[in-house]
């Protein structure tokens, strides 16, 4: 099948390459839509349009978010602003040129560098390949002298250029057991590709263009309990498959009827949310429905009720996270797992209508469900503001940060309006009505193709945003190369006294499953008690298109916290590691100690 379709997918590339300069004309998008240069589902809007046009157009069927049912309504009026002097977080601009626009991003273990990349199709970025090197394009014979992936040093902002040959546009990825990047899919010649990138100095991409059986464009990659990976979905790929050993190729995929049933005219089931549950099954959410897939039997073992209110998958892009998993010194047979899904669009035709300059208000609700219950049900809540194309990251404290995206429209080329500049934090353990708080707004719109990364110091790196075909700086929403860091409220100077420091040589670098281990912290707090301490392990997310793949946080069971030297503030913590790969897939995690809601700088720990 791949051989049959390959010539068909070269044609759009040749067309797009031939009309690259035409895109700069204000009316070029009209021709691009008429010619269907990227297929029937990839439409364009005017990149040089009016960002405020939605204010002048009345949309009679813009119904927004459905009201909560009586049973879902909080007993208290939601307070999204908190107390008058409560910290709201802080933004800082740390770099003005990321080299490439960060369509995809992930923090690499040990080296503490963020891998950023976009796509090769444009043959343009703001960083060239080193030493005058250029790559030769097989399809056209052109030379591409630009870099399309970089390592961003989170301490110095220095860039290390890397050379990609296959197109990573709208691809997926995750970290191997050894902390190396494994990426899948993309566009055209990159669609069947599996890529590998090690963290060693001087290492570059290794790419295998025929490794996957089906084309994986807009697919999701998830880690399994044994450290392997599954790749789910993609455009016109109603299937899933497991990443083969490096150098091998899959002969076939597994047909997945669920994806076909959740696809509609505007698709709305791309980049499905995939979370590994604590029982080893995969929670897969697409559009407004979800199932549990057993990766050993390849059978659906449970179908969940539909999440009411609208559509949550690309291009009606919502956000999702597996909520922090609470562990104990001795765990029950069933370890509870909950999933949160927020935002999206109430209109199944939001994409089609956005191509006609009709930008519907995004959804403002969240659905929360305990997926390990025998009869799970969705419970909805209301966010401080509507959000589509947002990112959802888990903070070291176990709280959820929602940021980026827009309040109107959907994902796509110029298909959104009204940037949502203000992050919101969600406190999963608070009472309904007190779970959300709106934080300080950024001044930089982060629209389509933005990304967010949790850092070892507890800050969140924010980069990307490119709703244009190429690198365009005079558009309605310019291609964005600036990099910011957001400091959540727990990094406010007013609570700095509670911030512990992990003693580097007294923390484990490697742990096994279900074992007791110790680490030491230093604290300036007057008193450090077990009830005020949490030890958390965070798996770095591969973030793209509002999906944070493989993200999870474990709140470990504690046995004791003992003061070793009260004068120096030295304390020894005895904790218990996760029980199995079903709960914590093998690999590298950031290990945090949280004291009274304030996290330490993390250390890296590998579990296997």
Can you describe what's shown?
The protein has 608 residues and is mainly beta. It is built from four helices and 45 strands. The strands form twelve sheets. Strands 21, 35, 37, 40, 43, 44 and 45 form a seven-stranded mixed sheet that branches. The chain has a four-stranded antiparallel sheet with strand order 1-33-32-31, with no helix packed on it. The protein has a four-stranded antiparallel sheet with strand order 2-3-6-7, with no helix packed on it. A hairpin with a 5-residue loop joins strand 16 (273-276) and strand 17 (282-286). The radius of gyration is 23 Å and the shape is globular. It starts with a helix and ends with a strand. Residues 1-15 have low confidence and may be disordered.
Identify the notable features of this structure and list them briefly.
4-stranded antiparallel sheet, disordered N terminus, 6% helix, 7-stranded mixed sheet, 4 helices, 608 residues, mainly beta
